[in-house]
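Q: Could you fold this chain for me?
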Amino acid sequence: MPLSAGAQAGYKDGVIFIVIRIDIRPDKRADFLEGIRRYSAQVREEPGNLHFTAYESVEGDNEYVVLANYKDQAAGEAHVTSEHAKWFFGWLPSVVARVPRIVYQELPPGVDWAEMGEVRLDTA
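A: Sure. Below is the predicted structure, expressed as structure tokens.
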């Protein structure tokens, strides 16, 4: 089995994998987009951040999902205690329709993003 991108990069302790669902208030969409863009750029600058992207649902109105990966537990803890995270956690209640929902997983060493076995590129 080939090494994962995380393992190739030297992250032998596995990675932190987070998915957050955020439902925003319709009247706060512009504010949310401005804030999440600001926050995303700040998070991506963290030394232990491997990936951070916010996506808008194509089916749910005002529903967003954030994917975040950190190289290890220490990187995740550094993120949560950063000034920009403290700002974000304090600001987010002003734009959400309900408390965001989160899936947090510490993946074992070598587990990372992999190609989907059920899909092959159409080369025609």
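A (continued): The longest strand covers residues 16-23.
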